[in-house]
Amino acid sequence: MKDNSLSYYVQNYFLSYLISQRGYGNNTVASYRDTFKLLFMFLESDGKKLSKLKLTDISQTCVLQFLEWAETERHNSVSTRNLRLTVLKSFFGYVLSTSPEFSGQCTDIINIPAKRVEKKPPLYLTESETKLLLNAPDRNSREGIRHMAILTLLYDSACRVQELINLNVADVTIGRCCKVFVKGKGSKYREIPIFGETGKILERYINAYGLKPGEVLFTNRSGGRLTRAGVSYIMNKYKKILQERYANRFNSNLSLSPHLMRHSKATHLVNENVNIYNVRDFLGHTSVITTQVYLTSNPEVTRKAIEKASSKTVSESNDYYSLQEKEDLLAFLETLI
Hints:
By secondary structure, the chain is mainly alpha-helical. The chain folds into two domains: 6-110; 127-335, hpI Integrase, Chain A, CATH 1.10.443.10. Helices cover 56% and strands 4% of the residues. It is built from 15 helices and three strands. It has helices spanning 6-21, 26-45, 60-72, 78-98, 103-110, 127-134, 142-157, 161-165, 196-208, 228-245, 258-271, 276-283, 288-291, 299-311, 323-335; strands at residues 172-173, 179-183, 189-193. α4 runs antiparallel to α5 (103-110), α7 packs antiparallel against α9 (196-208) and α7 (142-157) packs across α11. The longest helix has 21 residues, at 78-98. The protein starts with 5 loop residues before the first helix and ends with a helix. The model is unreliable at 309-321 (pLDDT under 50). Site-specific tyrosine recombinase, which acts by catalyzing the cutting and rejoining of the recombining DNA molecules. Keywords: DNA integration, DNA recombination, DNA-binding. It comes from Syntrophomonas wolfei subsp. wolfei (strain DSM 2245B / Goettingen). Belongs to the 'phage' integrase family.
């Protein structure tokens, strides 16, 4: 007889589907796990015992109540609320594929609409602010060289913080064509070109610390890999320094983070008229729809992008984009209205 307990389906969803079939990385699995931990917390607060819960106990009404609780009691933003819903939709999509007898319940939950959230252009550092930040560390000290290498590589490669701290020395190529080889979301690898000056800074850092190819590129004081918290600590240190030195030239209201560096690099590339598809590949996005948000940071860039997109509709350039890219571009244009 088939086990219809909630725990049975949740365990199989994580082990058989997310990890084995989809190959999701640790961070993605952790974010999905957090949604279920929160759901279980909600159910327990409602007097339910997890060990006795059946799959059928998680109805559309239950999910809607959970989402409302997450917003009001846990103070989740609308974006976070929608993320929780996306995880649950994914789970019930898996259940539907393995146990069609629950199709009515699964379809009801999958059809729950996401809340509309106001789309805002990503915040970013101006080029002058970025220059102030990258020049803030003391390049004459060993620690300063290390911090400069971390900050410069974060910006120039626009890599995610997890991609940065996963790097080994062997992942960096220094020479005529400087580049880094990173493992991104979904365990996908990509090669990122970096500026020659960034390569020189990394070379100086590697030599200063006597690092070998098989070693971790950035470590903490205990010798382990640098952590997310460690990167945040370094960034906050220089934010305070810049606020003191350049109160009128640095926006102290910005929350300085690795992702802000990524947003800044992407926005600067778009502002320099780099093709949006090249930016997509540089950032490691699977779709240009994710990347196009950077166009909205600068209205003039958006106008030029629309003109360029329109010019590509003539017959001479009909084969310029693949079918998928054409569909993505149409979806992108819809978001501009």
